[in-house]
Amino acid sequence: MIEPLIANLRARDTVSAREAQLLQSIIVRQRRFATDEDLVTEGSRPPYSTLLLDGIAARYRIVENGKRQITALHIAGDFVDLHAFPLKTMDHGIVALSPCLVAFADHGDLTRISENEPHLTRLLWLLTVIDGAIHREWIVAMGRRSKKSHLAHLFCELFARLKVVGRVSDDSFSFPLTQQELADALGISLVHLNKTLRLLRNENALQWTQRTVTVLNWERLEQIAEFDPGYLNLHVEPR
Amino acid sequence: MIEPLIANLRARDTVSAREAQLLQSIIVRQRRFATDEDLVTEGSRPPYSTLLLDGIAARYRIVENGKRQITALHIAGDFVDLHAFPLKTMDHGIVALSPCLVAFADHGDLTRISENEPHLTRLLWLLTVIDGAIHREWIVAMGRRSKKSHLAHLFCELFARLKVVGRVSDDSFSFPLTQQELADALGISLVHLNKTLRLLRNENALQWTQRTVTVLNWERLEQIAEFDPGYLNLHVEPR
DNA sequence: CGGCGGCTTGACACAGCTCAACGTCTGTGG
DNA sequence: CCACAGACGTTGAGCTGTGTCAAGCCGCCG
């Protein structure tokens, strides 16, 4: 059941059968959320962390003028609020952008892991710092790339991450977001997002129909995005 | 010598004398860097992490058109590349924006802490997730705030963080950056940064002369920024 | 079949960029 | 101690990117 998490970890380091077993044993209470439902609300202090097993979710903040900024997109295998284990309080909400299947790890159990399983602890720590690396990449894209490049970059990133957890087939992946949600992730208006999408479509770089994205020309997309997957740390080494 | 780090930690949890001592013992080899010198270079794999003891440093990335984006500003007490302990490879550079004094913690010693000191490990983990929280706040500011509000927010954040490590007196702090560097942090052009600064000056919110920032009207600045320091996690609780 | 949510497009306004010129400060060498 | 060079800051003009508003379209679901 926690295969995507194990896939995420095994893309970065070896994980013993015993460690995988241990993780399995503390991730419990499977639950479904509907589209637009909050998995976690801003300001809450959940005594557990949430592992996404299927679907797409987003971390977001609403600012005072009512605008929303999405700060991260999450897919199967992502521990969406693992950072709340050291942090305790959620400084943002997490919403399901599609139907989501999740399971939970109690913070008490995570504390026990941190007391007895140093290697596993470092792997969980690793997951949170990769989140940070992705945040930095988003900052760079928002600040210093064209919107076209930024959008292409986001698709490249999702493609690479979804591949790791086996959610890509025939260069396609399920992507049931609305354009407004994508606009909120890039920090631009809906209208401008729509026009930016057309730029990518005009280059025959990708297609997005029936809630499915198909990469038509990976080289072109990668080049528009100036995409370098290094920040995702997709190579096995001792951590 | 590592007082600012201890101040940072004690603003978030209790740290025993023994733990402080232990940290002290692994943070070694003090060194100075001149302005514009790289503390850490992109792509390197340092076998140690760098604690900033004095000065201001920035994480940055250069994109292909030659533009630079600063993704984080660091001050005394910040472990500027602690995330490279789990990550191993630096996906960005870190540059001194003023003369900097630093010291180093070998990754071997950090591994030993992760094996024997679960609480201290969680505290170090905490520092990296607070970095992540700051990144998210920057994403929100870049995407959904006006530039004036974004700039005010950055000053509010620095003010709050510098206070924790005792670098604020009389509502003033040393801030020897150039306007180009600030522009690179906000992701805007130098000219526009200059004009945005004037907006804050016109409101008598703050003053920035002789490499020193003085907050003239904290309430107004906070209000322009819609600043809520929650994300900095400046309260003591068991982690 | 009708209504609604989401997508698309065009017109226009304005925020932010680039270019270019000029002002100001500081450190250095004569 | 002064003169100067170079780096940094300031300002204006004109152009481009992005936002807002508004209308129309498409496709799905009740």
Automatic annotation (TrEMBL), chains A, B:
CDD domains in alphabetical order: CAP_ED
Pfam families from the UniProt entry: cNMP_binding, HTH_Crp_2
Molecular function, one GO term: DNA binding
GO biological process entries: regulation of DNA-templated transcription
Top-level division of the source organism's lineage: Bacteria
Keyword DNA-binding: yes
Record protein name field: CRP-like cAMP-binding protein
Taxonomic source organism: Mycoplana azooxidifex
